[in-house]
Amino acid sequence: MIVILTALAVEQEAVLxxxxxxxxxxxxxxxxxxxxxxxxxxxxxVALGVxxxxxxxxxxxxERAIAEFSPAAVLFAGIAGALRDKLRIGDVVVxxxxxxxxxxxxxxxxxxxxxxxxxISHELEQLARRVRRTRTWCEPLAPPGEAEAxxxxxxxxxxxxxxxxxxxxxxxxxxxxxxxxxVAIEMESAGFASAAHLAGxxxxxxxxxxxxxADGTKATTDAGGSQRLAARNAAAFAVALAAAVPDETTWxxxxxxxxxxxxxxxxxxxxxxxxxxxxxxxNNGAFTLNLTRENR
Length: 296
Fold this sequence. Notes:
By secondary structure, this protein is an alpha/beta fold. Helices cover 27% and strands 32% of the residues. The chain contains seven helices and 14 strands. The strands form three sheets. A five-stranded mixed beta barrel has the order 5-11-10-6-12, surrounded by five helices. The longest helix is centred in the C-terminal third of the chain and has 19 residues, at 226-244. The chain is globular, with a radius of gyration of 26 Å.
């Protein structure tokens, strides 16, 4: 089982394009997941959830999804704004590091950053780099030769609870001076990465498609369909990465797993100094065996 989380409906729909035999799975607290299998991979189950915008919601539902499905890996797929001109609309960024950029100390004249950062799981990074090299991940996007394949960048990403649409705002300056390795910005991966980190040994990765350049032109690019393009590209890469994760045991919903047989209980009794000889039996079912030998 692989969990893929998204924040927006356009991101969810992009992932659903790659799933078949989709069914609804309802968490006891009311959270709804879509559980299906990857196209062409009936052995690979995926649970898809929508967190909504923001780090807090992402953290809460990431923890919930991990507890519910015990996945082999959990991925966040969605859109982001570029902080570098080299990134084109539709390019994909695999976050090698996620910065939570809101932490810090505010003084009279300065804001002193106190960053928290999480790195991508090593195994998933290795798999992601191989997926990029094969180039087969982008085949579902368009027939060969009909569209230029998006570039895949392995870079740091900044995440916080603000939609950035300026290159000269205070937050833009903060990112430039204190998180200068970040090439893109979005709103969920800090919460996602923090929750996954607390869950222990589980593979995590953030995959983002560039939908704007965080430079005041967001409304124009969004109106031109950039969000759908970026979401489709990110989803295609995330799904290819999910397919590349080593096989693991198929997930079985709670309450549907076969009950284990009760333990065998043997009771051997000897009295008056006697010994019990060897007892041989074959267990073909659940039973309780009582063997008694007494000297009277």
